[in-house]
Design goal:
Elements lengths: L10 H15 L3 H14 L4 H14 L2 H14 L7 H7 L11 H11 L3 H8 L4 H16 L4 E7 L5 H6 L3 E8 L2 H8 L6 E4 L2 H7 L4 E6 L10 H10 E13 L6 E3 L5 E3 L1 H10 L3 E13 L2 E11 L6 E5 L2 E5 L8
Helix pairs in contact: 1-2, 2-3, 3-4, 4-5, 11-12
GO biological process, one term: methylation
Organism: Devosia nitrariae
Protein name: Methyltransferase
């Protein structure tokens, strides 16, 4: 995944891998796979080499060869940095599991951090933070919310969502798996606090009383939604908002793993998962999230709310008084 893992430690094997890379760039994936196989004969425990072999076999249409390579990769990669299980699952050769592939996602975004914004915004037309922020603004107007006291931006990345939230929030916390992403956004001074953590574990360890949680293109790496939605709902105060995006599909299953190693979620199971978490849907819209290989990626933009606290009826000296128990933190 990252440059330090690319060398095999053997000069001859590295030279063959470099030739293989050039062949792959020219579109000759079968020849690239043959050269990587030769390199792996010299260095059979080269983890990244098995990843290259799987990729080149996949591109060449040799799915059986790719699966074989990724099984070798899985056996060597104890930390899961190369995402072998996800790659096998995307071809029906393994289960993707119910939780985030932490090692893979962390390594992916550590590598991606320096060019993240340029690639995503300028090259792929990414507009999820802008669209979610627009929905949040609409809900604020409808609910007469002037500002949020405390908010968490899950998967904050380089702060694209945080930049838009900053003027709406008194205390803004950013959370991300990637130390490189945290370092990038830390230089911008957007957040009051930053944490490097897996998001469900972070939420489970958090207190309560959060007024807003955002997750722009984050749950697409989580797979099963109920655990993360339940964790988010627990920390939200009554009346708080959860705004997030998902990639969408129209099949019968709640979610499936795409070849991109991102999950796509079906609308109706997603609606049910939100309801099961005790949240009310305020916005639920289909939208193009960004471009991928020249085609739009369809997704869902969602804003949900934890139901406001019910008023308490008091009987004072024989008179009925309705006490407004709405939280003061959301103004």
């Amino acid at each position: 995944m990252i440059k330090a893992f690319h060398s095999s430690g053997d000069m001859v094997a590295d030279r063959r891998a470099d030739y293989a890379r050039r062949l792959a760039e020219a579109g000759d994936f079968s020849s690239a796979a043959e050269l990587i196989e030769q390199a792996l004969e010299l260095v059979p425990v080269w983890t990244a080499g098995w990843d290259f072999l799987g990729l080149y076999c996949e591109k060449a249409g040799d799915i059986a060869g790719a699966i074989s390579a990724w099984r070798h990769l899985e056996a060597l990669d104890d930390a899961g940095i190369f995402g072998a299980q996800l790659k096998l699952a995307a071809h029906g050769a393994a289960s993707a599991g119910d939780s985030t592939a932490v090692g893979y996602v962390e390594a992916l975004f550590d590598q991606y951090a320096p060019r993240f914004e340029r690639a995503l915004v300028q090259s792929l037309g990414y507009r999820v933070p802008e669209r979610l922020d627009g929905f949040i603004g609409e809900v604020m107007a409808e609910k007469s919310i002037a500002a949020f006291a405390e908010a968490i931006d899950l998967g904050c990345g380089t702060g694209l969502m945080g930049e838009r939230l900053r003027s709406k929030v008194s205390f803004l916390e950013g959370v991300d798996l990637s130390a490189a992403m945290i370092a990038e956004t830390g230089r911008k001074g957007i957040y009051d606090r930053l944490a490097k953590a897996e998001l469900v574990r972070f939420l489970n360890d958090y207190g309560t009383g959060v007024d807003l949680i955002t997750a722009a293109d984050v749950f697409i790496y989580c797979g099963v939604l109920p655990p993360v939605l339940a964790a988010a709902a627990r920390v939200m105060r009554p009346g708080a908002l959860l705004a997030f995006s998902l990639e969408a599909h129209d099949g019968p299953e709640p979610q499936f793993l795409r070849p991109s190693l991102r999950y796509a979620h079906a609308p109706e199971p997603t609606r049910q998962a939100i309801a099961d978490a005790g949240l009310d849907i305020l916005r639920f819209e289909r939208a193009a999230l960004r471009q991928d290989r020249g085609a739009p990626i369809e997704g869902l933009l969602i804003v949900a709310q934890k139901p406001p606290a019910a008023p308490v009826v008091l009987d004072l000296a024989g008179e009925t008084v309705i006490a407004d128990m709405e939280p003061e933190a959301i103004n």
